[in-house]
Write a structure and sequence with these properties.
By secondary structure, this protein is mainly alpha-helical. It has 6 helices and 2 strands. Strands 1-2 form a two-stranded antiparallel sheet. The protein starts with a helix and ends in an 18-residue tail after the last helix.
Length: 199
């Protein structure tokens, strides 16, 4: 049996496969009494700092907005040709107003040249649709159109007059024929309703 015993010693026992498991270490916080006290105080401050309910108080700007602000108004008086004083607008003219004045003068000059009123845009520039000069061909075409319309109108009135005359003649002839053919007045015969019965 000694041989069996030796064999047992050489054979190692079968052990199950083991997978190494990593254990997470929880950090233990060492809180002292001072730390606990400061945490409690901070939590209380946070609770105290909560936003209050309701409408927030008015700011200084809002309070000042309701106050009546008094400003001095400057009125410019300008002497006119007669020697009287009149109210005038603020003499400070902006660049935009200067441009509008220049564009208005330019528009008036063009209106005099073309002999018709011109339309302007919001910014004061001349609208080119109204400022275009008509070509000689366009002028000739409109002249022909006006002449043809005039002829057409004259022909229409002549045709209508002739038609009215013919209708009038026919009605007069018909009425004369009726008068000639029919007697003026025929007395109606008296018809007896009931005849006497004779036996």
């Amino acid at each position: 049996m000694s041989s069996e015993e030796s064999s047992d010693e050489t054979i190692e026992p079968i052990s199950p496969v083991s997978v190494p498991i990593k254990e997470t270490k929880k950090k233990k916080s060492k809180k002292t009494l001072d730390n606990l006290h400061t945490e409690i105080v901070e939590k209380q401050e946070i609770e105290i700092k909560k936003k209050p309910k309701g409408r927030p108080p008015k700011s200084l700007e809002e309070k000042l907005a309701k106050q009546v602000i008094v400003k001095e108004k400057i009125i410019y008086m300008v002497q006119n040709d007669k020697g009287d004083y009149e109210k005038a607008k603020n003499p400070k003219i902006t660049v935009k107003e200067l441009k509008k004045i220049e564009l208005n003068k330019h528009k008036e000059q063009k209106e005099i040249e073309l002999g018709k009123t011109l339309q302007t845009r919001k910014n004061g520039k001349i609208d080119n649709r109204s400022a275009k000069v008509r070509t000689p061909a366009q002028i000739e075409a409109t002249r022909k159109l006006v002449e043809s319309n005039k002829k057409r109108r004259e022909e229409k009135t002549e045709h209508k007059e002739k038609q009215d005359k013919t209708i009038l003649k026919e009605t007069v002839k018909d009425s004369v024929r009726e008068v000639v053919n029919e007697p003026f007045y025929e007395p109606k015969k008296k018809v007896e309703k009931y005849k006497p019965v004779v036996f």
